[in-house]
Design goal:
Length: about 550
């Protein structure tokens, strides 16, 4: 490391820590009367938000939450979630945003692994929580969140109901300074075999991510997306990488924020119209559902800017949205990156080009944002040229990337091999700095924004008496992004079709071992499954074969 000149600070100089509380206190400076809206049920101003965060901090502290404790949240997108995203880390605790779409078995694993001590549970998830409560090893108390008139529920070690507790708490709280490198948030990412992995982010990282996102989305004129006059409504679950960090950005800038609760396409259109929403973000599947809703059929969505991430934005969806007045912009990131690292950018050269060329670059992963470094490497870790043609694994550096996996140092070391975060995505970089994602290294299937392990699915399918050999890959689907496709070699004297396979997998869904979205909707019965020279399943060849079979309308494809 270079030996540089360092001057010690003057005596008494304030050492300013980058803490999440700074983001909360900034928003009210700009627009005190802007509202936080929850469905059609509640709205309040920024001063009230600050007061409610203080009340929640008092409730949690009175319940015994201490700095360093992990507090889990099971809720839909709501004003309560926003308050938790501030109050919990601001008292020095860690918020665990539970992915309620995981199987009960996986949720149980994540809660025990994260060592959750307190859990805030929406009334819709009381049954789910109670089903696993007896196996939780660290949870001490629960707190009820509900929209219902009934303010109680059969939850073990229940402290009380959220609104009742807040109304009785003091609206003042002295949020102390502490080390900016303290962990603020954690959540669990799936996408490979085995158990979910816990990623975590510090106050410093989240503040820097917030500043980076506000710059990427607010200062790039060619795709300007977000400013103080926008009305923000997330359509990405708040348990998914802090709703991509945008609630922190919106709060820092004092935007009007609209939280829709459980997603319903018809209601989302209604909220968009009523609240005059101008900015959202989501995965392609959710947008497709909104566009296909009855409410959208005769609606002009002019003025609605939507960032698409989570999976590739294809041209067909871009054009369909454009026809309805929506401006789509692609962005890229992953759970481990906080998440945003790049967003579509049109430079002077592209702006002078054709509309078709501009569209091509609006749907790519985009240009790395400020403070982000991107490169591509080969399997040996050697850097490859950024020529727009050479493919390699995308690796990243930025001040907000997770520094490892919670309690899994070996996996963290693999993530950061060579001092760069390895994304597991195959990409190219061109001379303009544009990232173009070409493929995934691992054979994980993403359907409707959810990750499915092909190996786990193969294991469950192989338990059917008729199956001798199985391989599962993801194939493109216009609605879901991808759907699982299974190749089966059947034992002699047995018979199986897609419907029989579905019936075989249903019990695993009911037991929580498998997401319902993981059941393949198509299978092919084959005499042999392609393999590599070392005996591994050759999934690249399998995908090519499936594409050819579909193009030729092969009769041995079985469809539900």
């Amino acid at each position: 490391m270079l030996q540089t000149r360092v001057i010690p600070p003057a005596e008494g100089a304030y050492q300013y820590p980058l803490l999440i509380k700074r983001l909360l206190m900034s928003g009210a400076r700009y627009e005190k009367t802007r509202e936080i809206v929850y469905r059609d049920q509640l709205r309040y101003s920024y001063p009230t938000l600050i007061e409610r965060v203080a009340r929640l901090a008092n409730v949690l502290t009175a319940a015994g939450v201490k700095p360093g404790d992990t507090v889990a949240v099971m809720d839909w997108d709501s004003h309560r979630y926003l308050e938790c995203m501030f109050a919990i880390p601001m008292i020095g605790a860690v918020i665990h945003t539970i992915n309620v779409r995981l199987s009960p078995e996986q949720i149980l694993y994540t809660m025990n692994h994260a060592e959750d001590r307190f859990v805030l549970v929406n009334s819709e998830f009381v049954g789910l929580y109670n089903a696993i409560a007896g196996h939780l090893t660290t949870v001490e108390k629960t707190l009820l969140l509900t929209d219902l008139p009934e303010k109680t529920a059969d939850l073990p070690n229940l402290v009380g109901e959220y609104e009742q507790l807040l109304s009785a708490a003091s609206p003042q709280y002295d949020f102390q300074d502490f080390d900016e490198n303290s962990v603020a948030t954690t959540f669990y990412t799936t996408g490979t075999t085995g158990n979910p992995k816990g990623v975590y982010f510090t106050h410093r990282q989240l503040v820097l991510h917030t500043m980076g996102v506000s710059t990427i989305m607010g200062a790039i004129d060619s795709v300007r997306l977000l400013g103080t006059n926008d009305v923000y409504m997330p359509i990405t679950p708040m348990f998914h990488v802090h709703a991509w960090g945008l609630p922190y950005v919106a709060t820092m800038l004092g935007l009007k924020q609209v939280y829709p609760g459980r997603y319903d396409p018809e209601f989302l259109v209604e909220l968009w119209r009523k609240e005059k929403v101008t900015f959202s973000h989501c995965v392609p599947t959710i947008l497709q559902m909104v566009l296909n809703s009855k409410a959208a059929q005769n609606t002009d969505f002019g003025g609605w800017k939507i960032v698409i991430g989570g999976s590739a934005l294809n041209r067909a969806l871009y054009e369909a949205a454009k026809a309805k007045g929506i401006q789509l912009t692609a962005a890229y990131g992953m759970s481990e990156t906080g998440p945003l690292v790049s967003c579509a950018h049109l430079n002077d050269e592209l702006m002078a080009g054709s509309e078709d060329e501009r569209t091509t670059y609006r749907i790519k992963a985009g240009v790395p944002g400020p403070l982000v470094e991107a490169a591509i490497v080969d399997s040996e870790g050697n850097f490859l040229p950024a020529d727009g043609e050479t493919q390699g694994e995308l690796v990243l550096r930025a001040p907000w990337l997770t520094e490892g996996y919670f309690n899994e140092p070996q996996k963290g070391a693999e993530l950061w091999a060579g001092g760069w975060l390895h994304t597991g995505d195959v990409a190219t970089l061109d001379t303009m700095g544009v990232i173009d994602i070409r493929d995934r290294i691992k054979d994980v299937i993403k359907t409707g924004g959810e990750w499915i392990s092909s190996l786990d699915l193969e294991d469950l399918i192989s338990r059917h008496a008729a199956v001798r050999e199985v391989a599962v890959v993801g194939i493109a689907d216009p609605q879901w992004g991808e759907r699982p496709f299974a190749l089966l070699v059947i034992r002699e004297g047995h018979v199986i079709g897609a419907k029989e396979l579905k019936e075989h997998l249903k019990p695993f869904v009911e037991l929580g071992h498998l997401s319902k979205w993981a059941i393949p909707s198509q299978i092919a019965l084959v005499t042999e499954i392609p393999k590599t020279s070392v005996g591994k399943l050759d999934k690249k060849k399998i995908r090519l074969d499936i594409t050819e079979w579909q193009a030729n309308n092969s009769t041995f494809l079985s469809t539900l």
